[in-house]
Design a protein that fits this description.
The protein is of the alpha+beta class and 334 residues long. 67% of the residues lie in helices and 11% in strands. It has a five-stranded mixed sheet. Strand 3 (238-245), helix 8 and strand 4 form a beta-alpha-beta unit. Helix 2 packs antiparallel against helix 3 and helix 5 runs antiparallel to helix 10. The longest helix has 70 residues, at 113-182. The protein is rod-shaped.
Length: 334
């Protein structure tokens, strides 16, 4: 039955006595009660409509927030896990809100079906995106696990390499101490033992080893080389490089077998290498080289500086086989 507007209902009530005579008070009360019930029903319906509209707006706002959260998910792979869980929580909340709206607002939702269909489609798409993110997260976790294992392997190699380097440094320091002790009786101006670049350098002056222009070692020099050879026999993992050095003064013309200072330095280095091997150092560990005048330790401008440049350097280098093996194994990990 269609409800009359309040104003029309009042006019009807007022006109009724004129047309039909007086009505009973009961009939009037019934009409008033019906009017009030209709007004109350309308107000309740409007309140329910406003409530449903507010809930729909809240759902729309939450969906907007969900989209913003999704965009932030892809900015940093390290935060993907936390963002995923947060988005999943928001998705559950939005889904619950959607179910609640369906239960409490059937009539309003019917009028807004297109909007809710869009929300449902967005939710389905978001769920698919969440699934893709979950797969990506699992892949990232697997890659992180692989990188962590690789890092642990590298750290172990580094620890091993550090230990090997420390052992090598201790061996070099011990070698220097042994050589210094063996050659302690010789004048420091003629013979020096020092550490340089992880090697032991034994520098012997020309005055200790040779007469001017000669390639034969003097007796005092032979004594020093024998003492050095005794130490090297005990140090089986040490390679020996003998370097001959000269000043810039040309050799005398006509010196037998010599063309220039390079020849002189090479022959002197070879002679010293030979004396070391005769004294017990395995030849395979000894290398002789002539450097001539090209690696000076001082300017060739005074007699004193020239004397410094006329020298033989015996370079003692511990074998680095273990270090090379560690480095090779580290390279294989890459």
């Amino acid at each position: 039955m269609k409800t009359l507007p309040p104003a029309l209902l009042v006019l009807t009530l007022l006109a009724t006595p004129l047309l039909h005579g007086c009505v009973t008070a009961k009939r009037y009360d019934d009409l008033s009660a019906r009017q009030k019930a209709d007004a109350d029903g309308k107000a309740a319906a409007e309140r329910q409509l406003r409530s449903s509209t507010a809930e729909l707006q809240k759902a729309t706002d939450e969906l907007t927030q969900l989209r913003l959260t999704q965009k932030r998910l892809v900015t940093d792979s390290a935060e993907t896990g936390n963002a995923y869980r947060k988005t999943r929580s928001l998705y559950n909340e939005l889904n619950n809100s959607y179910d609640k709206l369906l239960k409490n607002s059937d009539r309003e939702l019917a009028n807004k079906s297109s909007d809710y269909n869009k929300v449902a489609q967005d939710l389905a798409r978001r769920e698919a995106e969440l699934g893709a993110l979950d797969v990506s997260l699992q892949k990232s976790k697997a890659e992180n696990d692989r990188l962590a294992a690789d890092l642990r392997t590298r750290e172990a190699r580094l620890t091993e390499l550090t230990k090997a380097l420390a052992d090598k440094d201790r061996a070099v320091a011990d070698l220097k101490a042994r050589v210094s002790k063996a050659l302690l009786s010789f004048n420091s101006t003629d013979l020096q033992v020092k550490l340089k670049d992880g090697k032991v350098y034994v520098s012997l002056s020309e005055q200790l080893l040779f007469k001017s222009g000669s390639t034969k070692v003097d007796p005092k020099g032979q004594e020093a080389l024998k003492k050095l050879a005794t130490v090297l026999q005990e140090q089986k993992d040490v390679n020996v490089v003998v370097e001959g050095h000269t000043d810039t003064v040309p050799i005398r013309t006509g010196t037998a077998g010599l063309t220039d200072n390079w020849d002189l330095s090479a022959l002197r280095a070879t002679e010293i290498a030979r004396l070391l091997t005769v004294s017990g150092v395995p030849p395979a560990r000894v290398t002789a080289s002539g450097r001539g005048q090209y690696v000076p330790v001082a300017a060739n401008d005074t007699p004193a500086n020239k004397a410094l440049n006329r020298r033989t350097e015996i370079i003692l280098t511990p074998k680095l086989d273990e270090l090379f093996q560690i480095l090779d194994s580290s390279s294989a990990v890459r």
